[in-house]
Amino acid sequence: MALLVQKFGGTSVGDAERIRTVAEQVVRCRRNGDQVVLVVSAMGKETDELLRLAGEVSSEQSGREMDMLVTAGERKAIALVAMAIESLGVPAQSFTGSQAGFLTDATHRNAKILEVGAARIREALDAGSVPVVAGAQGVSTTKDVTFLGRGGSDTTAVALAVALGADACELYTDVPGVFTTDPRVVAAARRMHRITFDEMLEMTAAGCPKPAMRSVEFAHRHGVRLHVRSAFTWEPGTWVVEEGPDMEAALIRAVVPDLSEAKVTVAGVPDQPGVAARLFRELADAEVNVDMIVQNVSAAGVTDISFTVPHTDLSRAVAVCEEQRATTGATEVLSDDAIAKVSVVGAGMKSNPGVAATMFEVLAEHGINIEMISTSAIRISCVIAEAAADRAVAVLHEAFELDQTTF
Ligand code: ASP
Ligand code: MG
């Protein structure tokens, strides 16, 4: 008998029929003798819809009210899921984040978990009931309702798995696992059976949208076994595991596209100590989330600095750079939002030279120009034109033979 924390994302509980399907799955697990705790996201695109509504009633919203609003989505979903389970003759009880014992800091919109009590969840389990917990929410040290941020339900599920000492945390979603690349872009993309935490983290950092990075870090830190799988086919998905001796490090495991960033260049910056420090301090103070940074070799005492930011931060980044241009005497600020970042990830590159060379050759053979490059021990990322993104992903996936390997 296993204790499983099962998280269902928005599409998995997107309508009444989906909710009934999830309830039937719970009954099947119980029949197998497993104990389950559910964590549920808001139905479908409800979180987006609530955010949109907020924007329509007011141009500026307090974090407290936003969190009260957004967490309503999950609250509605847990009640419906609990009812559906009960209608199949299995006792179930819904719990808000606060009722489930999620104590957080008071950083509204993006609260951090401080403690997970989970006493009522244990009681419900002991009483033979299925606890259904609202994802991505808690109560702050100042007793306000808090939201853990977009994708926060994954973090709720992992944190609950830690608190309950669960045997595994299953993240149910609308795809059957983690793929070697986006299957919508490359039909030959394959589902992996296993991936290491380090590789999964690099993939999420490179732009792979699921699972949420915070939840993977949390699971890694606490040794939670993560299983990313489908709520549509129910087939076994991808296990995220520690690197083990039985696991041969793959040279390249995945090609990850990211179209969410834009590039900013400050040209003709004086090449003096403190210029980059000031620029990036100002960007940080403006809450611009900087990803890749490249500074050119200086010529005649000036240099160019380029960096990438999420599209959503672009206008703030350009405004900061324009101010800095005026004070430092830089010549111009350029921005380009039609870029893509394409990354290859694999633990095997640590001990095998030539991966970067191969990546650059493949892109060159297909006439794709590289604008920026950055690397980590197990990732190489290139910024290219957005229009070339799908082609780059396809040719890299093929060149590294990801369509032929099974992990
Ligand atoms: N419903 C929230 C969101 O869409 C939280 C979550 O599902 O993880 O971000
Ligand atoms: Mg873009």
Question: Could you explain the architecture of this structure?
Answer:
By secondary structure, the chain is of the alpha/beta class. The chain has a domain at 3-174: Carbamate kinase, CATH 3.40.1160. It is built from eleven helices and 20 strands. It has helices at residues 16-31, 46-57, 63-86, 119-126, 152-164, 197-205, 213-222, 275-285, 314-328, 355-365, 389-399; strands at residues 3-8, 35-40, 92-95, 102-104, 113-116, 130-134, 137-140, 145-147, 168-173, 194-196, 226-230, 238-241, 254-258, 261-270, 293-295, 302-310, 332-336, 339-345, 372-376, 379-385. The strands form four sheets. Strands 3-6-2-1-9-11-12-10 form an eight-stranded mixed beta sheet, sandwiched between helices. Strand 11 (226-230) and strand 12 form a beta hairpin. Helix 10 packs across helix 11 (389-399). It starts with a strand and ends in an 8-residue tail after the last helix. The mean pLDDT is 95. Bound molecules: aspartic acid (ASP) and magnesium ion (MG). The site of magnesium ion (MG) has 6 residues, from strand 14.
- Percent strand: 25-35%
The largest pleated sheet is described as: 8 strands, mixed
Gyration radius, in Å: 23 Å
Count of helix runs: 11
Low-confidence stretches: none
* Bound molecule types: aspartic acid, magnesium ion
Terminal-residue CA separation: 28 Å
CATH fold group of one domain:
Carbamate kinase
What's the average pLDDT?
95
Report the principal-axis shape.
Answer: globular
Portion in helices: 25-40%
